[in-house]
Amino acid sequence: MASLIRALRPLCRTAPSFRMATRRPLPNHWTPSTHAFSTTSRRRDVDLSNLTPTPITLLSETESMMADTVSKFAQEQIGPKVRDMDEAEVMDPAVVEHLFEQGLMGIEVPEEYGGAGMNFTSAIVAIEELARVDPSVSVLVDVHNTLVNTAILRYGDAQARRTWLPKLATGTVGSFCLSEPASGSDAFALQTKAEKLADGYRLNGSKMWITNAMESSVFIVFANLNPSQGYKGITAFIVEKGTPGFSIAKKEKKLGIRASSTCVLNFDDVVIPKSSLLGEEGQGYKYAISVLNEGRIGIAAQMTGLALGAWENAASYVWNDRRQFGQLIGNFQGMQHQLAQAYTEIAAARALVYNAARKKEAGQDFVQDAAMAKLYASQVAGRVSGSAVEWMGGMGFVREGIAEKMFRDSKIGAIYEGTSNIQLQTIAKLLQKQYTN
């Protein structure tokens, strides 16, 4: 398959930001009746006041082509390997290689650094389409794009961008290392320490629940350079795999997204040069929170894609194969109502996801929108994937298809990049601020 990005780049350069397109349907591919309108990541430079309002999920021609192409790629190149990767709990290296070949690991990275130079919504579209086939692959792409690439692109200096972005866009997987054994939702409790040296820094501590760790060669690590200052001492560093003292201590065995690696990392007197500092000293906590707010939209997209994949798989079975009492069970009114309810909830979740993405692109405050999208999308993913197992009966319960896998994979949506309770707290605080006299 020819590179996705090579095919879309000319269109990215020439298409107006609000050019509309009709998306070509693919076999077994859900095609929404509406698409969203941006192809540029620089929404802050656009005067939105005179634009005609459009449906939230209306995609530009570029974004629509991205969705169709990623869907086809996922079905053909990833789909046949999903069950084997889940059983082995290992990401097939060939899949990772294909992701780079297709340009999906540098979607927002500017072309000058070897990336696609596309907008944020294009990344969200890709994450959603991948999750319809395998949420494990989707989260690898999501974390790499929305956390790692974004952090370096936004907070790295010119040298850091020149050094790391070409690698991350073309062949090197990245990890975002914030969580620790006693510091998950409470990032203030971070214990990994950094010591300033004459010509660099020394890191000591450990990280836990680090996504992509087995595949990664570049790690963004958050450590406290000045513990007496609390969270104001937290600083971000870039650490390469193979640095003396840095090791992967344990790979976790998980309930879901089992092909996605999740590991414990140890830092034992890890000495790194001054150039490994990401941004400014003491600004790491601000960087992490800012990037995670965007990342939550990516996780929400992963969950809507998962829900849709589970729904499509089950709907196809009950409307074409499973019979009881002399007819397809999808013809029973009770089943039809459940399918309709689930699809409606998926559509509502997608509206929240795309609204948050568009607000982010427009330079508007999207923190509450991102929290609502992640909260609701993860709830919908759990409900729909669980119902899908029941709709399929015994075939949903066995490990022959993807139904039970999607159900297991859905649980992580309520946990990583901010638990559901954290999202509720964020939403409540912002609402309280708005409604308090």
UniProtKB/TrEMBL annotation:
Residues 60-171 form the Acyl-CoA dehydrogenase/oxidase N-terminal domain. The keyword Lipid metabolism applies. Residues 175-270 form the Acyl-CoA oxidase/dehydrogenase middle domain. Homotetramer. InterPro entries: Acyl-CoA_DH_CS, Acyl-CoA_Oxase/DH_mid-dom, Acyl-CoA_Oxase/DH_mid-dom_sf, AcylCo_DH-like_C, AcylCo_DH/oxidase_C, AcylCoA_DH/ox_N, AcylCoA_DH/ox_N_sf, AcylCoA_DH/oxidase_NM_dom_sf. This is Short/branched chain specific acyl-CoA dehydrogenase, mitochondrial. Residues 282-429 form the Acyl-CoA dehydrogenase/oxidase C-terminal domain. It catalyses: 2-methylbutanoyl-CoA + oxidized [electron-transfer flavoprotein] + H(+) = (2E)-2-methylbut-2-enoyl-CoA + reduced [electron-transfer flavoprotein]; butanoyl-CoA + oxidized [electron-transfer flavoprotein] + H(+) = (2E)-butenoyl-CoA + reduced [electron-transfer flavoprotein]; (2S)-2-methylbutanoyl-CoA + oxidized [electron-transfer flavoprotein] + H(+) = (2E)-2-methylbut-2-enoyl-CoA + reduced [electron-transfer flavoprotein]; valproyl-CoA + oxidized [electron-transfer flavoprotein] + H(+) = (2E)-2-propylpent-2-enoyl-CoA + reduced [electron-transfer flavoprotein]. Keywords: Acetylation, FAD, Fatty acid metabolism, Flavoprotein, Lipid metabolism, Mitochondrion, Oxidoreductase, Phosphoprotein, Transit peptide. Its cofactor is FAD. The keyword Flavoprotein applies. Its EC number is 1.3.8.5. It is found in: Mitochondrion matrix. GO terms for molecular function: flavin adenine dinucleotide binding; short-chain 2-methyl fatty acyl-CoA dehydrogenase activity. Belongs to the acyl-CoA dehydrogenase family. One of its GO terms (biological process) is fatty acid metabolic process. Pathway: Lipid metabolism; mitochondrial fatty acid beta-oxidation; Amino-acid degradation; L-isoleucine degradation. GO terms for cellular component: mitochondrial matrix. It comes from the Eukaryota.
